[in-house]
Amino acid sequence: MIAYKKKSNRYLIAIAVLALVSMLIAPISVKAQKKKKTAATESERPQYRNLFKEAGYSQNEIDKKVAKAYFDIFEGPNKIYFEEGNSLGYASDIKNKDARTEGMSYGMMVAVQLNKKEVFDRLWRWSVKYMQHQDGPREGYFAWSVNPLTKKQNSPGSASDGELYFVTSLLFASNKWGNTTGIDYYKEARKILDAMWKKDGTGNVHNIINTEHKQISFVPEGGGYNWTDPSYHVPAFYEIWALYAKDGHEQFYKECAEVSRNFLHNACHPVTGLNSDYTEFNGEPHPTPWMPPGFRYDSWRVPMNVAMDYTWYGKDKKWQEGYAKRFQDFLRSKGLDKFEDQFNLDGSTPDFILQAGPVKKLRHSIGLVATSATASLVNPGKESLDFVHAVWNAKLEPYEDGYFDPYYDGLMYLFSLMHLSGKYQIIVPEVK
To answer: How far apart are CA 208 and CA 199, in angstroms?
Structure first.
């Protein structure tokens, strides 16, 4: 009997010891799993290169360069951003005397990336008040051009890239600032997307994305639904929608991203890398009544969009690296400090020159100097740093003939500085 009690006691003691060890080990195991998961998540995140630093500039110089560009465009004497009352603000295409969904949504993207919440909120409220349709066939969409003085809509129809940037900026704002600080950013993004998916051609208004071709349309109305603009193809944004929109169309958005990447293979010239401002869905140039095919102002954005997709997702690296090299080699062949801003796709000088506001002239535009430099994030050749130095030394100021465009040139310049300094990033939800 005594022997049995001793065995029983030893058994109970052993169980107690095992239980105590388990209690001590469990938290360590959970912590290890969490650490492993965090490490895996970190390794999956993009590596945002700071090409300015790689080119030899100090972080202090880089931060000042980006801050000055923001100041010049949003706050300085030649600013494009104007506040109204206590809660509104707009970005103006000064030379064309209007506010555009392009500039409004670009301004919002700049603001969310650089943590300028008040600017973001003002731009969004102005967009909703004066641009967004609240009823009718265009409900949820935006008038692409508004007179900022009279508030009259110059054109009630949409330009598809505006909605593209609005949605992505709002999703980033939701991730960065949450949805309880005055604006429910996620709800506003979903309002656009949910409205987009309800468009069935009624009133000749369609989805922003041509659902048959899985490509963004030039405009979601009439014949413009059946062709596209290569500079509207931002595959990285579709990936963001697939992650954060949570509207049930995740697979469609992922497919759109892949289609856009493949589309650019066809749209860009195999030697020069140049694309036409407007194309068919197969990449062939699309002539319009107002201009023949050619590489012009819209097209400047393509290398920047490719650089973004390469950095953020890297799913088409081989082609994108080849494209960046071809594109930069072509511009370098025209003279790094003098290449002009419009071309035929084979690199020759076009007969038709698209004017900028009241001015019709080829020039060495800072907007293209800037976006061509972002291709250095993609081009594996060390020689591509010459483009980085070129944009570093460029100045956002009037040309010798007096022409100055702080709006389009300015925004392309600021976006490019953000990309090249690693300050243009995927904004993930804040971890509580």
So the answer is: 9
Helices within 45-116 (DSSP H only): 51-54, 59-74, 101-113
Task: State the pTM of this model.
Answer: 0.91
| Structure tokens, 272 | 């020069």
Active-site positions read: 102, 298
Distance, CA of 169 to CA of 259 (rounded, Å): 22
| Per-residue pLDDT tens digits for 364-409 | 999 999 999 999 999 999 999 999 999 999 999 999 999 999 999 9
Tokens representing residue 195 in the block: 């409205």
* DSSP annotation string for 355-407: -BTTB------HHHHHHHHHGGGT---GGGHHHHHHHHH---S--TTS---TT
Q: 202: which residues sit within 8 A by CB, 6+ positions away?
A: 137
Distance between CA atoms of residues 5 and 1, nearest Å: 6
pLDDT digit string (tens) for 75-86?
999 999 999 999
Q: Residue 137 has what DSSP assignment?
A: T
pLDDT at residue 141 greater than cutoff 60: yes
First to last CA, the chain: 59
